[in-house]
Amino acid sequence: MSAAPSVDVFDLGSEHEQVVFARDAATGLRAIIAIHSTALGPALGGTRFFPYASTADAVRDVLDLSRGMSYKAALAGLDLGGGKAVIIGDPAALKGEALLRAYGRFVQSLGGRYYTACDVGTFSADMDHIARECDFVTGRTTAHGGAGDSSVLTAYGVFQGMRAASTVAWGSDSLAGRTVGIAGVGKVGRHLARHLVEDGAQVVVTDVATAALERVRDELPGVTVVGSTQDLVTSALDVYAPCAMGGALDDAVLDVLSARIVCGASNNQLAHPGIEKSLEDRGVLYAPDYCVNAGGLIQVADELEGFSFDRAQQRAGGIFDTTLRVFELAASDGVPPAIAADRLAERRMRDVGRLRGIWLGA
């Protein structure tokens, strides 16, 4: 029986500067920190706490997410690089002060090359625990001088990106009278739903968590709830907003999707290479995920200067103009918006990054 072919770990993260595996047996911590690029500055990206089916799944996710953070920071005009971390396990069973503080010591050991923040499965209070062992933490609670919940400006930025897409698709920056379907109404989707309702949109939502749906129904009684993502994407929509996990846009979804615009908060929405061209061929205007969901990064990055919500919100409002720039370049270059966004981000990383090189830490 022949052995399974080996995989070179350098091939897996061929674009990345550094990938760190961290383990603390006493607390059950198993974490991976991926630094994609520090060409523009120290890498900043959240810590995802998730029960991955395998370590290989966790590695793939952290590599994809950290790469996206480099592009997100570059396109948002920030002097930051891209990084991400994942903690493997069920946060409901494993997460506690000791584990978070152990994780904080590993982040501290990187000497400022990576700043962490919140992501799926982690919250501002968790960042406060991590910060007891680490100087390189953002997204802390307001009680500790932090920016608090970054989902607030993430949702605001997605809304601005959606307004820009609406301008291109329908000649109006308002979603009034449009039907918007949101898949995932946890941290970000709930705030996005409120912006849309206030703008006069008809909002349809779904989520795997009953509690999340009940909260939205209580806060926004006019919102329509459907049972599954399949029910959502097959319904009559003007805009589809994926706001849960990645890979939301695959061939099966495209086959049934009626929406003119896709604009949501999820990272890594495109399930495979080439799907961006399929979207364009079907007349769907795709607002690139890392372009429109940069509000949370802008919020926690502002914390590094001494947090001002008004200043961060003003900067996040710039996502409207950035999204328009992406659509304009896509039209002029004859490429899908996802390719245009990559070109803009890569141009900045190349032009500015060549002046800096690799970030050596604080």
From TrEMBL:
Molecular functions (GO terms): nucleotide binding; oxidoreductase activity, acting on the CH-NH2 group of donors, NAD or NADP as acceptor
Coiled coil: none
Glutamate/phenylalanine/leucine/valine/L-tryptophan dehydrogenase C-terminal domain residues: 148-357
Keyword Ligase: no
Chain residues that bind NAD(+): 184-189
Record field: transmembrane: none
GO biological process: amino acid metabolic process
Pfam families (UniProt xref): ELFV_dehydrog (PF00208), ELFV_dehydrog_N (PF02812)
Keyword Repressor: no
Keywords in alphabetical order: NAD, Nucleotide-binding, Oxidoreductase
Record SMART domains: ELFV_dehydrog
InterPro entries on file: Aminoacid_DH-like_N_sf, Glu/Leu/Phe/Val/Trp_DH, Glu/Leu/Phe/Val/Trp_DH_C, Glu/Leu/Phe/Val/Trp_DH_dimer, Glu/Leu/Phe/Val_DH_AS, Glu/Phe/Leu/Val/Trp_DH_bac/arc, NAD(P)-bd_dom_sf
Active site, renumbered: 84 (proton donor/acceptor)
Similarity comment: Belongs to the Glu/Leu/Phe/Val dehydrogenases family.
Protein name: Valine dehydrogenase (NAD+)
Organism name: Nocardioides psychrotolerans
